[in-house]
Amino acid sequence: MHHMLKMAAAAAGLLLLIVMPARAAEVSADDTARFLAGMQPSADSPLLPLTRDPAWQHHAKFFDAAFAQLESRQISRIHAWADANLAAPRPTMFYMFSGPDFLYADAFYSKATTYVLAALEPPGGVPDLTRLPRGSIGSGLAGIEHSLSSILSFSFFITKHMKVDLHDSEFTGALPILYVFMARSGKTLHKVEPVGLDSNGTLLTGADAGKAVTHGARITFSGKDGVEKTLYYFSTDLSNSGVKASGFLKFCDTLAPGNSLLKSASYLLHAGNFSAVRDWLLANSATIIQDDSGIPLGYYSAHKWRFFRFGRYAGPISEFPGRYQQQYAELFTRAQPIDFGIGYRWRSHESNLLLSVKTAADEPATAETTSAAEPVSASKPPRPRRPRPVYVEPPRGFFFWR
After folding, report:
1. Exposed, middle or buried, 389 (CB in 10 Å: 0-12/13-18/19+)?
2. Is the backbone peptide bond immediately before 257 cis, with ω within 30 degrees of 0?
């Protein structure tokens, strides 16, 4: 009997050794991102059993269909536009008022190696999914789906939806959305870590990140070509008083010059209390891609910029009265067509896209663009050839812009 007990104890110990590594196996950021994006995690991932849940399988089918349509309708066409019009982009791209929109940052500037995104939304976090209560994952995935419904359909976030949908979820803030977009963009996540900035713009990591005045996250990742890249996301107030205290622009100084993207920016750069960010972008961008909600034409120096215009300027939507730009309308009287929608005017036949190229002596426009569009000087826009366009009201009940 004593011998049999010893054998049983030994067998139990061996079983414990086998089981313990599986329980202690770390869930990688990449597998977590793939799971949240409705994509199969790696074959040895602790998350693999969770993919048998009908809620996850429904989530995967929903995102498979939604992202396939988005790729066909938007993303592949933006990639083609960027390949045709951006010959030598800088390694760093800046995207102010971005929210967690890595999707369009990568679509326009896929050749960048450093991405800097900034918005009010907190970084949030993603817990170990294997430790969540049964049933909470399904509701969390449904919250992600709903929070992304606007950007998947219209190319911009409805901030109110995102805050409500993720507020009571296990997945909070910007990180879960960044995970989804990066996985669906074919990226492999290698490391995700909290970071912060002090008031001098010094990057804080590890235990020091908790002492920061500006909080964020750093994601190290690679694409299909294997090139290692970095994404910084910072939660910060971009108004004049906000950037004065945050250290954010001082951090951006260390990565400038770069290329910039402004999309669905709520016309904040039209206001005087966002002049610091506006001036910084004009001083530190080699190219700026924007819709009309970005920097007003009057702030561009006639001697430093050339414009390449695409699409049609149909004026601002009714949620932003008083933001019509006559100079913008004049500039877009002879614009190249685009086959995708962008910004608040999300229908392709109403969207406008402006590529502004800095033409300083050491940065000629020909070095930054191969655009077939006719460039125009900031000082002499073409004369208007048609009357001011009439705004057509979109369907009610869908739009709640920040």
Report:
1. middle
2. yes
Question: Using an 8 Å Cβ cutoff, are 216 and 230 in contact?
Answer: no
Beta strands 214-222 and 228-235: pairing type?
antiparallel
Q: Tell me, yes or no, whether 131 lies in a domain.
A: yes
C-beta atoms surrounding 396 within 10 Å: 6
Does residue 116 fall inside a structural domain? yes
SS3 category, 310: strand
Residue stretches of the chain with pLDDT short of 50: 1-2, 4-24, 155, 157-158, 160-166, 362-370, 372, 379-402
**pLDDT tens figures, 175-199:** 999 999 999 999 999 999 999 999 9
Residue 2, SS3 per DSSP: helix
**Are the beta carbons of 315 and 288 closer than 8 angstroms?**
no
DSSP-based helix, strand, coil % in the chain, nearest 5: 40, 20, 40
Could you give the number of structural domains in the chain? 1
> Which residue is it, tokens 């700026």?
288
311, part of any domain = no
Instruction: List, in sequence order, the alpha helices (H) in 71-168.
Output: 76-85, 102-108, 136-147, 149-154, 159-167
Q: Do 81 and 74 touch, CB atoms closer than 8 A?
A: no
pLDDT in tens, 64-116: 999 999 999 899 999 999 999 997 779 999 999 999 999 999 999 999 999 99
Report if residue 65 sits inside a domain.
Answer: yes
Q: Is-contact 357 364, C-beta < 8 A?
A: no
Give the range of the structural domain holding residue 118, as residue numbers without chain letter.
Answer: 26-40+53-291
Q: In what order do the strands lie in the sheet with 188-197?
A: 203-205, 188-197, 214-222, 228-235, 114-119, 92-96, 258-262, 285-290, 352-358, 305-311, 376-377
- pTM attached to this predicted model: 0.84
Strand pairing partners for 354?
A: 290, 309
